[in-house]
Amino acid sequence: MAMAMNVSSACFCVSGNRRSVNRVRAVASEDFAASKIKEDKVRLGGSDLEVTRLGIGAWSWGDTSYWNNFEWDDGKMKAAKAAFDSSVDCGITFFDTAEVYGSGLLFGAINSETLLGRFIDDRKLKDPEVEVAVATKYAALPWRLGRQSVLAALKESLDRLGLSSVELYQLHWPGIWGNEGYIDGLGDAVEQGLVKAVGVSNYSESRLRSAYEKLKKRGIPLASNQVNYSLIYRTPEENGVKAACDELGVTLIAYSPIAQGVLTGKYTPENPPTGPRGQIYTPEYLTKLQPLLNRIKEVGQTYSRTPTQVVLNWLVAQENVVPIPGAKNAEQAEEFAGALGWRLTGDEIDELRSLALEVKPVIGFPVEKL
Ligand SMILES: NC(=O)c1ccc[n+]([C@@H]2O[C@H](COP(=O)([O-])OP(=O)(O)OC[C@H]3O[C@@H](n4cnc5c(N)ncnc54)[C@H](OP(=O)(O)O)[C@@H]3O)[C@@H](O)[C@H]2O)c1
Fold this sequence. Notes:
It is a single chain. With 370 residues, the chain is an alpha/beta fold. The chain has one domain (2-369): TIM Barrel (Alpha-Beta Barrel). Helix content is 44%, strand content 12%. The chain contains 15 helices and ten strands. It has helices at 2-9, 18-27, 74-89, 104-107, 112-126, 147-161, 179-191, 205-217, 235-238, 241-248, 276-280, 283-303, 307-316, 330-337, 346-357; strands spanning 41-43, 50-52, 56-57, 94-96, 133-138, 166-171, 195-201, 222-228, 251-255, 321-323. The strands form two sheets. The chain has an eight-stranded parallel β-sheet with strand order 3-4-5-6-7-8-9-10. The chain has a two-stranded antiparallel ribbon with strand order 1-2. β6, α7 (179-191) and β7 form a beta-alpha-beta unit. α3 crosses α5 (112-126), α8 packs parallel to α10 (241-248) and α12 (283-303) packs across α13. The longest helix has 21 residues, at 283-303. Bound molecules: NADP nicotinamide-adenine-dinucleotide phosphate (NAP). NADP nicotinamide-adenine-dinucleotide phosphate (NAP) is lined by residues 57-60, 96, 172, 201-202, 226, 255-261, 264, 266, 308, 324-328, 332, 335, 365. Residues 53-355 form the NADP-dependent oxidoreductase domain.
């Protein structure tokens, strides 16, 4: 009975592991569309934009500077496309990219926006009615100044995406200077109909408040602040950002919500991640993480959910939070959908936070302190 109820509000392609997927199929053989999570949308801040409660991050798509062992090939491209299609199949239709994701901005090679645009195009050929919400970002590079630089960058992003507008345009990080002009540029983008909603990213509480006030004077709501937030990176709870988002009605979009794969439990002291992540999540760090990971796994077992689904559910339970985990393939995307449609209890949420307090946070992206 409990399983049937979970399925009715969650996605058909979601469960914690393959065995439970089969059990779910046996219990709920209703129409696929009815079990999609499509109805489960949230409004971003005070904007009119509604997105799924969880989005998919596309940083790794085409990237050769941090992800993918510094190599991009056809196999990885097909896997990324499958991640996109599976997300849409599961009812997750909100995708986060940026002009600097991938290897394309400087060298004209493939980048994440180009790939996302192609995946949307291909999908529309099969499914013309499909509705996808695209979020992309402006890189506040020191030589970019003035409101027109925001519009110019946005138009280039739209070209790469092959779209005439996007749902959400965000300032990727605060600039060293020029921030007032960037906020003016966001407002211009809304007024010119190039975006439905605007947001910021890596903004501190005080920057968030001033961006909110400046846009408000033009009657434009600041929809979101995208920041690093996970069970083991709770800085937004400590630096006033989460409280300010809640107070102002700005949605907190949580990036790196599964701590770049570490909270899934697949990396262990014996099997640490390779590449740049290996410098952050060392065997020593992973050893200290094990008690928390063990408890996450146990809690998940009571719901037939995976650790990944538990830690994403924990974030959604904080309210006013939309996590955007990165998916490299169909399996990862499918698993994310199973984070929705059920809920940890208050006691479990508190217990996991207390256990996480024992783990020292890693160093975040320094721009959040600019
Ligand atoms: N605004 C900003 O400054 C900023 C900064 C960072 C990220 N972001 C956004 O946030 C998104 C997500 O953050 P993120 O990519 O840093 O980290 P994340 O979502 O916490 O982790 C993503 C990584 O975890 C692994 N993974 C994903 N699903 C898994 C699963 N079901 N089971 C096991 N492993 C899984 C994959 O890497 P492996 O398979 O290689 O382990 C994947 O690339 C990005 O794509 C981007 O859109 C924004």
